[in-house]
Amino acid sequence: MKHLLFLMSDLEGGGAEKALVELLKSIDYTRYKVSLCLILPRGVYMEDIPKEVNIITLFEGEDSKRYRKLFRAYIDFKRTFPLSYFLHTKLRRLRYDAIISFMEGDPLLLHNFIFSRGRVNISWVHCDLYHYHYSEKRFHEPITEIDCYKKLDKIVFVSQMAMNNFDKLFTVDTPKYYLYNILDVDKVECLANNQMFLKRQFTIVAIGSLIEVKGFDYLIRAAKRLKDKGYSFNVQIIGRRDQEEALINLRDELGLEANIEFLGFQDNPYPYLKQADLLVSSSVSEGLSYVICEAFALAIPVVATKTAGAMELLDNNKYGILTEQSDEAIYLGIKRMMDDEDLRKEYAEKGKRRSEMFAACRIVNEFYKIINK
Fold first, then answer.
1. Could you point out which of 3, 131, 189, 330 has its C-alpha 20 to 30 Å from the C-alpha of 120?
2. How far apart are CA 189 and CA 203, in angstroms?
3. Low-confidence stretches of the chain (pLDDT beneath 50)
4. CA atoms of 65 and 87, how far apart (whole Å)
5. The model's pTM
6. DSSP labels, 215-271
7. Strand 176-178 to strand 202-207: parallel, antiparallel, or no bridges (unpaired)?
């Protein structure tokens, strides 16, 4: 039986975290022993980890003395030994058939300290680093991000375009692959039927963390244009994070209190998505948008800005409308969908068929090939 070690920051409600949990649920535990090393044991997906997975927790919280001491030694004083020694101690000198840092940033940083423990070392990249290089701030001399990637045996991306854009940022000869995230279509459909809503007007849904890279301000300003043109609609924004207050203030300044509602984080957002007429993804950068895949599964038409993931999923407007990243372009894309019911039906049907490409059986078999060859 082969032993796999996954490295992850936590299991807060993001796409990478959801992708990891779906992958863990699909692994054959008669063939693989799996350990999951979390920097912090927190997040909405903690309870979804399969019981077969051995969970290793490094720190209890960001306010713990050990966390602050070890990361401060690295970040402030460029001392790597305390963090490296601590990680090796936590892993009890075990060796693994494959070590997988399942996200850029901190998981890759920790992977740097334990390459010698893995027969094969692999890292996942979930975003388009060329357009959103947020992870660089976690790497300080003598450790550099590019050197970490060069040490790997393989790098896996969640879309082909994210992989291609990576090569614009880094010159790394490490073998590269792309593998879509798993989407449990049956589960999404089941959860979507858990609750029903009374819909009074055309409903637009947007789902994601309320952070700058998600571009919700574009959507709000586009909604202002729709209202000024006399359209009747409701926008439901599902998610939370540090930009929520600023976005609510923007909505109120534009007089859209009756048109846009912030629903916060929802454990089950699928009933909202299912009753929507349209999903809008207004992101500045996406490796592969999970919510677009979920909209496909529920036959909801999509308008999305041109990010790496959306461009690959919508395939030059074949499966939805792609727009530039601007208020006007998003407004025109939404307007076109609102004006054309036949177009919405066409995209709904095509998207539903497209969701089959995220089937667990196909993707997990590709995962086995990557970790074993």
1. 131
2. 19
3. none
4. 16
5. 0.91
6. -HHHHHHHHHHHHHTT--EEEEEE--STTHHHHHHHHHHTT-TTTEEEEE--S--HH
7. unpaired
